[in-house]
Design brief:
The longest helix has 17 residues. The strands form 2 sheets. A 6-stranded parallel sheet has the order 2-1-3-4-5-11, with helices on both faces. The protein is built from 12 helices and 12 strands. It is of the alpha/beta class. It folds into 3 domains: 44 residues, lambda repressor-like DNA-binding domains (434 Repressor (Amino-terminal Domain), Orthogonal Bundle), CATH 1.10.260.40; 130 residues, Rossmann fold (3-Layer(aba) Sandwich), CATH 3.40.50.2300; 138 residues, Response regulator (Rossmann fold), CATH 3.40.50.2300.
Protein backbone atom coordinates (compact mmCIF):
# COMPACT_ATOMS: atom_id res chain seq x y z
CA UNK A 1 0.00 0.00 0.00
CA UNK A 2 1.25 3.48 -0.89
CA UNK A 3 2.53 5.57 2.01
CA UNK A 4 0.58 8.82 2.24
CA UNK A 5 1.50 12.18 3.69
CA UNK A 6 -0.90 11.40 6.55
CA UNK A 7 0.93 8.10 7.27
CA UNK A 8 4.26 9.90 7.34
CA UNK A 9 2.95 12.58 9.71
CA UNK A 10 1.49 9.94 12.07
CA UNK A 11 4.77 7.99 12.06
CA UNK A 12 6.73 11.11 13.05
CA UNK A 13 4.07 12.46 15.44
CA UNK A 14 4.01 15.71 13.46
CA UNK A 15 1.23 17.65 11.76
CA UNK A 16 0.57 17.02 8.09
CA UNK A 17 1.30 20.69 7.29
CA UNK A 18 4.71 20.48 9.02
CA UNK A 19 5.66 17.34 7.07
CA UNK A 20 4.46 18.93 3.83
CA UNK A 21 6.52 22.11 4.42
CA UNK A 22 9.57 20.04 5.32
CA UNK A 23 9.38 18.03 2.09
CA UNK A 24 8.78 21.12 -0.05
CA UNK A 25 11.52 23.11 1.70
CA UNK A 26 8.98 25.53 3.06
CA UNK A 27 9.55 28.10 5.76
CA UNK A 28 9.18 27.75 9.55
CA UNK A 29 10.68 24.23 9.68
CA UNK A 30 13.95 23.59 11.50
CA UNK A 31 16.76 21.75 9.76
CA UNK A 32 16.57 19.00 12.39
CA UNK A 33 12.87 18.41 11.66
CA UNK A 34 13.48 18.57 7.92
CA UNK A 35 16.20 15.90 8.21
CA UNK A 36 13.92 13.65 10.29
CA UNK A 37 11.11 13.93 7.73
CA UNK A 38 13.37 13.23 4.73
CA UNK A 39 14.91 10.20 6.46
CA UNK A 40 11.49 8.77 7.40
CA UNK A 41 10.17 9.40 3.88
CA UNK A 42 13.03 7.33 2.47
CA UNK A 43 12.53 4.53 5.01
CA UNK A 44 8.78 4.33 4.38
CA UNK A 45 9.22 4.68 0.59
CA UNK A 46 7.04 7.79 0.50
CA UNK A 47 6.47 9.33 -2.93
CA UNK A 48 4.73 12.65 -3.44
CA UNK A 49 1.52 12.55 -5.46
CA UNK A 50 2.26 14.82 -8.46
CA UNK A 51 -1.41 15.03 -9.43
CA UNK A 52 -2.33 16.34 -6.02
CA UNK A 53 0.47 18.90 -6.09
CA UNK A 54 -0.48 20.03 -9.58
CA UNK A 55 -4.18 20.32 -8.71
CA UNK A 56 -3.27 22.72 -5.92
CA UNK A 57 -1.69 24.88 -8.60
CA UNK A 58 -4.74 24.54 -10.87
CA UNK A 59 -3.07 22.22 -13.39
CA UNK A 60 -2.94 18.48 -14.02
CA UNK A 61 -0.04 18.35 -16.53
CA UNK A 62 -2.20 16.26 -18.86
CA UNK A 63 -3.37 17.01 -22.40
CA UNK A 64 -6.31 15.35 -24.12
CA UNK A 65 -5.78 14.15 -27.69
CA UNK A 66 -8.84 13.14 -29.74
CA UNK A 67 -8.26 11.25 -32.98
CA UNK A 68 -10.89 10.16 -35.56
CA UNK A 69 -9.47 6.66 -36.05
CA UNK A 70 -6.77 4.29 -34.81
CA UNK A 71 -6.74 1.89 -37.78
CA UNK A 72 -4.04 3.46 -39.95
CA UNK A 73 -0.57 4.71 -38.90
CA UNK A 74 -1.77 8.30 -39.47
CA UNK A 75 -2.97 8.92 -35.90
CA UNK A 76 -0.06 7.02 -34.35
CA UNK A 77 2.48 9.23 -36.15
CA UNK A 78 0.75 12.44 -35.04
CA UNK A 79 0.48 11.18 -31.46
CA UNK A 80 4.17 10.27 -31.36
CA UNK A 81 5.00 13.83 -32.40
CA UNK A 82 2.70 15.28 -29.73
CA UNK A 83 4.11 13.00 -27.05
CA UNK A 84 7.74 13.64 -27.98
CA UNK A 85 7.37 17.37 -27.38
CA UNK A 86 5.04 17.28 -24.37
CA UNK A 87 7.26 14.76 -22.53
CA UNK A 88 10.04 17.36 -22.48
CA UNK A 89 7.79 19.59 -20.38
CA UNK A 90 6.50 16.89 -18.04
CA UNK A 91 3.08 16.53 -19.67
CA UNK A 92 1.22 13.26 -20.22
CA UNK A 93 -1.55 12.65 -22.73
CA UNK A 94 -4.97 11.02 -22.59
CA UNK A 95 -6.08 9.63 -25.96
CA UNK A 96 -9.69 9.42 -27.10
CA UNK A 97 -10.87 7.82 -30.35
CA UNK A 98 -14.03 9.28 -31.87
CA UNK A 99 -14.22 6.49 -34.50
CA UNK A 100 -15.46 9.09 -37.03
CA UNK A 101 -18.56 9.57 -34.85
CA UNK A 102 -19.44 13.11 -33.73
CA UNK A 103 -21.34 11.92 -30.63
CA UNK A 104 -18.35 9.85 -29.48
CA UNK A 105 -16.18 12.89 -30.08
CA UNK A 106 -18.46 14.99 -27.85
CA UNK A 107 -18.38 12.25 -25.20
CA UNK A 108 -14.58 12.21 -25.33
CA UNK A 109 -14.43 15.98 -24.84
CA UNK A 110 -16.70 15.71 -21.77
CA UNK A 111 -14.63 12.82 -20.39
CA UNK A 112 -11.44 14.85 -20.75
CA UNK A 113 -13.03 17.85 -19.07
CA UNK A 114 -13.95 15.56 -16.16
CA UNK A 115 -10.32 14.45 -16.00
CA UNK A 116 -9.46 18.16 -15.79
CA UNK A 117 -7.00 18.10 -18.67
CA UNK A 118 -5.14 21.38 -19.23
CA UNK A 119 -6.03 21.48 -22.93
CA UNK A 120 -7.29 19.40 -25.87
CA UNK A 121 -5.74 18.69 -29.26
CA UNK A 122 -8.37 17.40 -31.67
CA UNK A 123 -8.86 16.22 -35.24
CA UNK A 124 -12.62 16.74 -35.75
CA UNK A 125 -14.61 14.01 -37.48
CA UNK A 126 -17.25 16.46 -38.76
CA UNK A 127 -16.68 20.15 -39.52
CA UNK A 128 -20.15 21.21 -38.30
CA UNK A 129 -21.39 18.72 -35.70
CA UNK A 130 -19.69 19.93 -32.50
CA UNK A 131 -19.15 23.61 -33.31
CA UNK A 132 -21.20 24.74 -30.28
CA UNK A 133 -19.02 22.61 -27.97
CA UNK A 134 -15.83 24.11 -29.43
CA UNK A 135 -17.28 27.62 -29.08
CA UNK A 136 -18.24 26.99 -25.45
CA UNK A 137 -14.68 25.86 -24.68
CA UNK A 138 -13.23 28.91 -26.39
CA UNK A 139 -15.54 31.27 -24.47
CA UNK A 140 -14.01 29.85 -21.27
CA UNK A 141 -10.51 30.40 -22.71
CA UNK A 142 -9.98 26.65 -22.55
CA UNK A 143 -6.85 25.73 -24.57
CA UNK A 144 -8.00 24.05 -27.80
CA UNK A 145 -5.95 23.20 -30.90
CA UNK A 146 -7.15 21.51 -34.10
CA UNK A 147 -4.96 19.49 -36.44
CA UNK A 148 -5.35 18.16 -40.00
CA UNK A 149 -9.11 18.77 -40.20
CA UNK A 150 -10.50 22.19 -39.43
CA UNK A 151 -14.05 23.05 -38.25
CA UNK A 152 -15.04 25.36 -41.10
CA UNK A 153 -16.30 28.80 -40.04
CA UNK A 154 -14.83 28.64 -36.52
CA UNK A 155 -12.03 31.00 -35.57
CA UNK A 156 -9.42 28.86 -33.84
CA UNK A 157 -5.84 27.69 -33.63
CA UNK A 158 -4.86 24.88 -35.95
CA UNK A 159 -2.10 23.14 -37.88
CA UNK A 160 -2.87 21.57 -41.25
CA UNK A 161 -1.57 21.18 -44.80
CA UNK A 162 -2.54 22.84 -48.08
CA UNK A 163 -5.25 20.41 -49.18
CA UNK A 164 -6.19 22.40 -52.26
CA UNK A 165 -2.80 22.82 -53.92
CA UNK A 166 -1.48 19.37 -53.04
CA UNK A 167 -4.61 17.78 -54.55
CA UNK A 168 -4.34 20.00 -57.62
CA UNK A 169 -0.73 18.94 -58.25
CA UNK A 170 -1.45 15.22 -57.80
CA UNK A 171 -4.38 15.33 -60.24
CA UNK A 172 -2.23 17.38 -62.62
CA UNK A 173 0.36 14.59 -62.45
CA UNK A 174 -2.31 12.05 -63.48
CA UNK A 175 -3.45 14.25 -66.37
CA UNK A 176 0.11 14.76 -67.63
CA UNK A 177 0.36 10.97 -67.77
CA UNK A 178 -2.52 10.91 -70.28
CA UNK A 179 -5.35 10.22 -67.81
CA UNK A 180 -8.54 12.15 -68.52
CA UNK A 181 -11.28 10.05 -66.87
CA UNK A 182 -10.25 10.43 -63.26
CA UNK A 183 -12.40 9.17 -60.40
CA UNK A 184 -12.32 11.13 -57.14
CA UNK A 185 -13.17 9.11 -54.03
CA UNK A 186 -14.34 12.07 -52.00
CA UNK A 187 -14.90 10.73 -48.51
CA UNK A 188 -17.67 11.73 -46.07
CA UNK A 189 -19.73 14.90 -46.49
CA UNK A 190 -18.86 16.08 -42.98
CA UNK A 191 -15.09 16.30 -43.55
CA UNK A 192 -14.32 19.72 -44.98
CA UNK A 193 -10.90 18.61 -46.30
CA UNK A 194 -12.70 16.37 -48.79
CA UNK A 195 -14.43 19.42 -50.27
CA UNK A 196 -11.16 21.35 -50.46
CA UNK A 197 -9.44 18.44 -52.18
CA UNK A 198 -12.42 18.16 -54.54
CA UNK A 199 -11.87 21.79 -55.51
CA UNK A 200 -8.23 21.02 -56.33
CA UNK A 201 -9.40 18.04 -58.40
CA UNK A 202 -11.95 20.10 -60.36
CA UNK A 203 -9.59 23.00 -61.01
CA UNK A 204 -6.87 20.69 -62.28
CA UNK A 205 -9.37 19.26 -64.77
CA UNK A 206 -10.38 22.79 -65.78
CA UNK A 207 -6.75 23.82 -66.35
CA UNK A 208 -6.43 21.09 -68.99
CA UNK A 209 -9.96 21.70 -70.35
CA UNK A 210 -11.19 18.26 -69.31
CA UNK A 211 -14.97 18.34 -68.74
CA UNK A 212 -16.03 17.69 -65.16
CA UNK A 213 -18.14 14.53 -64.87
CA UNK A 214 -20.10 14.35 -61.57
CA UNK A 215 -20.53 10.58 -62.11
CA UNK A 216 -16.79 10.21 -61.41
CA UNK A 217 -17.00 11.87 -57.97
CA UNK A 218 -17.97 9.18 -55.46
CA UNK A 219 -19.12 10.14 -51.96
CA UNK A 220 -17.99 7.34 -49.68
CA UNK A 221 -16.88 6.57 -46.14
CA UNK A 222 -13.36 6.31 -44.78
CA UNK A 223 -12.81 2.55 -44.78
CA UNK A 224 -11.03 -0.01 -46.95
CA UNK A 225 -14.42 -1.55 -47.77
CA UNK A 226 -15.76 1.87 -48.72
CA UNK A 227 -13.08 2.28 -51.38
CA UNK A 228 -13.61 -1.26 -52.60
CA UNK A 229 -17.40 -0.87 -52.89
CA UNK A 230 -17.09 2.46 -54.72
CA UNK A 231 -15.01 0.90 -57.49
CA UNK A 232 -17.21 -2.22 -57.60
CA UNK A 233 -20.21 0.03 -58.28
CA UNK A 234 -18.41 1.86 -61.07
CA UNK A 235 -17.45 -1.43 -62.72
CA UNK A 236 -20.97 -2.83 -62.36
CA UNK A 237 -22.38 0.34 -63.96
CA UNK A 238 -19.77 0.03 -66.73
CA UNK A 239 -18.50 3.55 -66.01
CA UNK A 240 -15.36 4.27 -68.01
CA UNK A 241 -12.35 5.57 -66.03
CA UNK A 242 -8.55 5.42 -66.32
CA UNK A 243 -7.39 6.82 -62.97
CA UNK A 244 -8.43 7.15 -59.32
CA UNK A 245 -7.56 9.99 -56.96
CA UNK A 246 -8.53 9.12 -53.39
CA UNK A 247 -9.27 11.37 -50.41
CA UNK A 248 -7.46 8.95 -48.09
CA UNK A 249 -5.03 6.07 -48.18
CA UNK A 250 -7.40 3.41 -46.82
CA UNK A 251 -9.95 4.22 -49.53
CA UNK A 252 -7.22 3.97 -52.16
CA UNK A 253 -6.06 0.60 -50.85
CA UNK A 254 -9.64 -0.70 -51.03
CA UNK A 255 -9.92 0.61 -54.59
CA UNK A 256 -6.67 -1.12 -55.57
CA UNK A 257 -7.91 -4.38 -54.07
CA UNK A 258 -11.07 -4.21 -56.19
CA UNK A 259 -9.09 -3.50 -59.36
CA UNK A 260 -6.82 -6.49 -58.72
CA UNK A 261 -9.77 -8.80 -58.02
CA UNK A 262 -11.19 -7.77 -61.38
CA UNK A 263 -7.82 -8.31 -63.08
CA UNK A 264 -7.48 -4.63 -63.99
CA UNK A 265 -3.80 -3.73 -64.28
CA UNK A 266 -2.39 -0.89 -62.20
CA UNK A 267 -1.22 1.51 -63.64
CA UNK A 268 -1.48 0.28 -67.26
CA UNK A 269 -5.28 0.35 -67.29
CA UNK A 270 -6.06 2.43 -64.20
CA UNK A 271 -3.62 4.65 -62.31
CA UNK A 272 -4.18 5.17 -58.56
CA UNK A 273 -3.06 8.06 -56.35
CA UNK A 274 -4.05 9.21 -52.89
CA UNK A 275 -3.85 11.95 -50.28
CA UNK A 276 -2.80 11.21 -46.67
CA UNK A 277 -0.26 8.52 -47.48
CA UNK A 278 1.74 6.70 -44.79
CA UNK A 279 4.22 3.84 -44.96
CA UNK A 280 1.28 1.61 -45.99
CA UNK A 281 1.63 3.16 -49.45
CA UNK A 282 5.03 1.48 -49.78
CA UNK A 283 4.06 -2.03 -48.65
CA UNK A 284 1.48 -2.68 -51.38
CA UNK A 285 2.12 -3.70 -54.97
CA UNK A 286 2.40 -1.62 -56.97
CA UNK A 287 3.55 1.02 -54.52
CA UNK A 288 1.02 3.81 -54.17
CA UNK A 289 1.66 7.40 -55.30
CA UNK A 290 0.62 9.64 -52.42
CA UNK A 291 0.59 13.08 -50.86
CA UNK A 292 2.31 12.51 -47.53
CA UNK A 293 1.77 14.96 -44.70
CA UNK A 294 4.58 15.59 -42.19
CA UNK A 295 2.67 13.82 -39.43
CA UNK A 296 5.25 13.91 -36.62
CA UNK A 297 5.91 17.59 -37.30
CA UNK A 298 2.16 18.18 -37.32
CA UNK A 299 1.94 16.55 -33.89
CA UNK A 300 4.89 18.51 -32.51
CA UNK A 301 3.45 21.76 -33.86
CA UNK A 302 0.05 21.03 -32.31
CA UNK A 303 1.76 20.30 -28.97
CA UNK A 304 3.73 23.54 -29.17
CA UNK A 305 0.53 25.47 -29.90
CA UNK A 306 -1.34 23.91 -26.95
CA UNK A 307 1.52 24.81 -24.58
CA UNK A 308 1.31 28.41 -25.82
CA UNK A 309 -2.43 28.37 -25.15
CA UNK A 310 -1.94 26.98 -21.64
CA UNK A 311 0.64 29.65 -20.85
CA UNK A 312 -1.58 32.40 -22.23
CA UNK A 313 -5.20 31.31 -22.94
CA UNK A 314 -6.08 34.68 -24.49
CA UNK A 315 -3.31 34.55 -27.10
CA UNK A 316 -4.63 35.26 -30.65
CA UNK A 317 -5.46 32.27 -32.83
CA UNK A 318 -2.68 30.89 -35.02
CA UNK A 319 -3.06 29.11 -38.35
CA UNK A 320 -0.04 27.06 -39.41
CA UNK A 321 0.11 25.40 -42.84
CA UNK A 322 2.77 22.72 -43.31
CA UNK A 323 4.27 21.53 -46.58
CA UNK A 324 3.48 17.98 -47.73
CA UNK A 325 5.64 15.69 -49.87
CA UNK A 326 4.22 14.31 -53.10
CA UNK A 327 5.65 10.82 -53.60
CA UNK A 328 5.24 9.51 -57.14
CA UNK A 329 5.43 5.71 -57.24
CA UNK A 330 4.60 2.90 -59.63
CA UNK A 331 0.80 3.00 -59.15
CA UNK A 332 0.70 6.03 -61.48
CA UNK A 333 3.49 5.00 -63.84
CA UNK A 334 6.99 6.33 -64.32
CA UNK A 335 7.91 9.99 -63.98
Amino acid sequence: MRTTLKDLAKHLNLSISTVSRALSEGKDVSQRTRDRVIKAAAELNYRANPLGLNLKQGITKTIGVIVPEMITPFAAEVISGIQALLNKYGYKIIIGNSEENSQKEADNILLMENFMVDGIIICPCDYKANIKIYEALQLRNFPLVFYDRIPHGLEGTYVAVDDYHESFFMVEHLIRHKRNKIVYLQGPEGIYNSKTRAKGYKNALAKFKIPFDPALVIQTGMTFDGGKRAIENLLQNKTSFDAIFSFSELLALGAMSCLKLNKIEIPNQVAVATFSGTFLSTVVYPQLSSVEQPLRIMGQTAADLILEKIKNPSIPSKKIILHSQTQIRSSTGKL
